[in-house]
Amino acid sequence: MKNFKNTKTFFNLFLLLVIFVFSSACSQQSKSQTNQLTTEASEFQHPEWAKNATIYEVNVRQYTPEGTFDAFEEHIPRLKKMGIEVLWLMPIHPIGEKNRKGKLGSYYSIKDYKAVNSEFGTIQDLKELVKTAHENDMKVILDWVANHTAWDHIWTKKHPGWYTKDENGNFQPPIEDWSDVIELDFDNHEMRDAMVNAMEFWVKEANIDGYRADYAMDVPTEFWNRAREELDQIKPVFMLAEAEQSDHHNKAFDMSYAWKFHELTNEIAHDSAGPKDIDQYMAWEDSTFPNHAYRMYFTSNHDENSWNGTAVERYGPALKAMAVLTSTIDGMPLVYSGQETRINKRLEFFQRDTIRWEGSELDEFYTKLLQLNQNNSALWNGKAGGDFVRVNTNNKNEIYAYKRVKNNNEVFVLLNLSDQKQTVTLKDFPNTTYTDVFSESNLEIGEEPIDMDPWGYRVLKK
Questions:
Q1: How many CA atoms does the CB half-sphere of 293 hold within 13 Å?
Q2: What's the pLDDT score for residue 106?
Q3: Are strands 457-461 and 432-436 parallel, antiparallel or unpaired?
Q4: Phi, psi dihedrals of residue 416, rounded to the nearest 5°
Q5: Which DSSP symbol is given to 255?
Q6: Could you point out which of 192, 201, 349, 362 has its C-alpha 20 to 30 Å from the C-alpha of 377?
Q7: What is the pLDDT, as a whole number, of residue 3?
Q8: Is the pLDDT of residue 184 over 80?
C-alpha cells in the first residue's frame, strides 16, 4: 500500500506539473497574441490631415440638374466654407443593365471597376473634380463595392470562377432583395489580386485619397488589411468602413460607422431613450474599439434618406439637437447631400430626383458647427481631440451635458433631450466665461440656473 501511495502521489505531482507548464504556455501564447493586437493597433497611422476632418457624402446624380462631376465641382468652394474637408463620392462606375432596378439603376451595381459612369462624365472630369478639391485643401474618397458586382460585370464573362454559385452552379445575389447584383468569392485569390489592382488604379490615375468600403463586414478583414497596406505604398490613404467591427481598425480602416449611436439618436427623438442610454453607449464604445479608432456620427446618409426617411422626418423638432450631439462627441460628423438646405424629401435611388437648393437657416447652422469641429482641437478626431467629460445636472433624465477639453481649448455642450422646457442647474461647476458658438455672445456659466427650450441646445467654447 505504501509503495502504491507514493506512486500515486508522484503521478499526481507529475500531472500538476504538466498542467502548469501547459497553462503557462497557453497564457504566454494568449499574452503574445494580445500584445500583437495591441502593437498593431498602437502602430496604426492616420493621414495627418484626417485629425480634424469632417465628411460630406456626395450624391452626384441628384446634386444638380445636370447630375455630373462638372456641375458638382462648382459647389466645392461653398462646401469648403461650410467646414467640409472630405468629399465621399457615391459609386462613380458604370451601372449594370441586366436585372437593373429602375430606369438608371443602383450606383452599387457595378459593371466595371476601372471605368466611369458616362451619366456623370469622364475620367478626365473626375480628375478635374479631385484637382479642384485638392486646391481647396479638401480630400476625395470613392465608394468601393467589393462584395458584389452587377450581373453583367466584365468579370462574369472572363472570370466566372470569381463568383459564388448556388446549388445549380448559377450566380447568386448576396441577399435575396439585392436582385441586381451577384456575390464575389473571396476564397479566390486571383479575384482578390484584381480587386486590389482596381483600387490602386484610382489612387494612381485620379489621385483620390481613399475609399469608403460598402458592406465591409461581409468581406474578409484580411483582404482589407492587404488592400490598405498596398494602397499606402502609393500614398497615405483614408479608409472608411460601412461596418461596426473592432478588428477593422487594427490595420485596415481609419473610421467606421457609428450605427448603434445613430439608432439611439432616433430613439431619443421619439422619447424612447435618454441621457443614461448615451452614457451606456459611450461605455460600450470605449470598451469595444481601440482608442485610435475614428467613429463616424450622422443624422442621415443615402440609405437612411431613401429608405428610412429624411432627417427632418425622423427627428422632427429634435433635429438640431441631434446634429449638435453627433458633431461634438468623440467622432467625425457626416453631412449628406442636401441636409444643409433642410431637405425633407426621400430622394429616389434608381432615377433622377434633383435636390432643390433653397435657402435655409441650416446652412449657417452647419457652417458654425462644422467650422468649430475643424478649428477647435477639443473636437478633433480620435486621440487628436479632447477627452469627453460628463457634467452633472439636476435634470439627469432630460438634460445631457458634457465637455471636450484639449490643452487650452474647451467646448461645453448642453442639450435638452425632451419636448418640455427645462431649468438646468449644474452641479459642482465653477463659474466659467464661454462664447456661445451660435449667438457669438459671451456667457458666464456656473451657479445660476439655465433655461432651455424643448429640444434646446447650447454650444459654448473657450
A1: 29
A2: 98
A3: antiparallel
A4: -95, 105
A5: E
A6: 362
A7: 39
A8: yes
Domain 390-461, architecture per CATH: Sandwich (2.60)
**DSSP single-letter state for residue 6:** H
pLDDT tens digits, 313-370: 999 999 999 999 999 999 999 999 999 998 899 999 999 999 999 888 899 999 999 9
Q: In this structure, which CATH number among 3.30.43.10, 3.40.50.1580, 3.40.50.1820, 3.20.20.80 belongs to the domain 47-385?
A: 3.20.20.80
Name the residue with higher pLDDT: 306 or 447. 306
**In this structure, which long-range contacts are made by residues 111-119, counting pairs with CB atoms below 8 Å and at least 24 apart in sequence?**
111/149, 111/150, 111/152, 111/153, 111/154, 112/153, 112/154, 113/149, 113/195, 113/198, 113/201, 114/198, 114/201, 116/92, 117/91, 117/92, 117/93, 118/94, 119/61, 119/67, 119/68, 119/95
The helix (H) or strand (E) run that includes residue 128 is: helix 123-135
Contact 332, 295 (CB under 8 A): yes
- The residue behind cell 468602413 is 241
Kindly report the number of other CB atoms within 10 A of residue 192's CB atom.
21
Residue among 262, 359, 256 at smallest CA distance from 303: 262
User: Which residue ranges make up each domain of the chain?
Assistant: 47-385, 390-461
Give pLDDT, residue 43.
Answer: 77
CA gap 121, 141 in Å, rounded: 17
